[in-house]
Design a protein that fits this description.
elongated, 193 residues, single chain, alpha+beta
């Protein structure tokens, strides 16, 4: 009877805790500290409109911290774009009846790398926060947080231009089918993130 009573009280307390917390907030242990990272969160995730990435860099030199953050964010963005474009190329080529499927797939991947390198110049910075951390007896430490984005439409257009200039791919290339495949992969990427 005592055990049933204890379980009942525990159940009521858990239900009260869930209701008072709204049920959707994560449970944080007493020895944990929640860290809010600037330039991060759902509003900085890739969606149908743009690829997005965020990162931070730190250094005793403010400009070095900024360069590190931008470099990290660009590397993340490039990796995400290459992953999506590889899937787009695979799915597009596999959905077509092509005689030279392997060669065309290689060309798609080659074009994706070229386009990613070229279009990274078109990134837009959407958030930046610079902080300074005082350290005991040492030099101050600068932290630079950044979020960047690249328009998915601009990327698709650049990719289209690159593919339509390629004589091997041009014969079998259908932009509408490519765009449809691209949009499907963007939706899959966003959903699985």
């Amino acid at each position: 009877m005592k055990r049933t009573y204890t379980l009942g009280i525990a159940s009521v307390m858990m239900a009260f805790a869930l209701v008072s917390c709204g049920g959707s907030d994560p449970v944080v242990q007493e020895d944990e500290v929640v860290i809010n990272i600037p330039c991060s969160g759902p509003e900085y995730f890739t969606d149908d409109e743009a690829f997005r990435a965020n990162a931070f860099g730190e250094s005793i030199d403010m400009m070095t911290a900024k360069r590190k953050a931008m470099s990290n964010a660009k590397a993340q963005l490039a990796g995400d774009i290459e992953s999506v474009m590889k899937l787009v190329g695979d799915n597009y080529v596999m959905s077509r009846e092509l005689n030279n499927r392997e060669e065309v797939l290689e060309r798609f991947e080659e074009n994706a790398r070229t386009v990613v390198n070229q279009t990274l110049r078109g990134i837009r910075q959407i958030c930046e926060v610079n902080t300074k951390v005082k350290q005991d007896g040492d030099q101050d430490l600068y932290r630079y947080y950044v979020a960047i984005e690249l328009s998915a439409e601009n990327l698709a257009q650049s990719y289209y231009q690159s593919l339509s200039d390629d004589e091997v791919v041009k014969i079998d290339y259908n932009y509408e089918r490519f765009k449809e495949t691209f949009e499907e992969e963007m939706e899959n990427y966003r959903s699985n993130r």
